[in-house]
């Protein structure tokens, strides 16, 4: 009963609903009972919720925030931006196009340069016919 939004229901009524469902479930053991349980609660809703007051009672206690807690909350909210110089910002804009995306092939490897760095492939000693 605490999983869903049932804060407005008094604890005595929650216990009564749970007890009613458990009693009905014991009677229907071995059968498909989901629909039967819902129908049983619907039929007996008036007597189950007889202890529920008409006005909403707030059972929650108000939270008192101390100054230390306020300071912690304000410190968590402050997020520092990364400060960049004009030249750093210019370099970032030069790397992207008008939409803020990098151009096609920006991360491609130059094959000739890569092969020249890795060196020539060693030939295997296969007999030539």
Automatic annotation (TrEMBL):
UniProt xrefs under InterPro entries: RWDD4, UBQ-conjugating_enzyme/RWD
Lineage: Eukaryota, Metazoa, Ecdysozoa, Arthropoda, Hexapoda
Region (Disordered): 84-104
Organism: Homalodisca liturata
Gene3D superfamilies in the record: Ubiquitin Conjugating Enzyme
Membrane spanning stretches: none
Protein name (record): RWD domain-containing protein
């Amino acid at each position: 009963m605490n999983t869903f939004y049932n804060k407005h229901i008094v604890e005595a009524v929650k216990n009564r609903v749970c007890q009613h469902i458990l009693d009905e479930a014991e009677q229907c053991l071995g059968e498909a009972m989901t629909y039967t349980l819902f129908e049983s609660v619907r039929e007996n809703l008036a007597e189950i919720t007889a202890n529920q007051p008409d006005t909403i009672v707030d059972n929650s206690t108000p939270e008192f925030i101390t100054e230390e807690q306020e300071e912690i909350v304000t410190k968590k909210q402050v997020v520092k931006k990364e400060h960049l110089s004009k030249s750093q910002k210019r370099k970032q804009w030069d790397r992207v196009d008008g939409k803020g995306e990098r151009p096609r092939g920006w991360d491609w490897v130059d094959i000739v340069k890569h092969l020249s760095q890795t060196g020539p492939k060693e030939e295997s000693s296969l007999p030539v016919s």
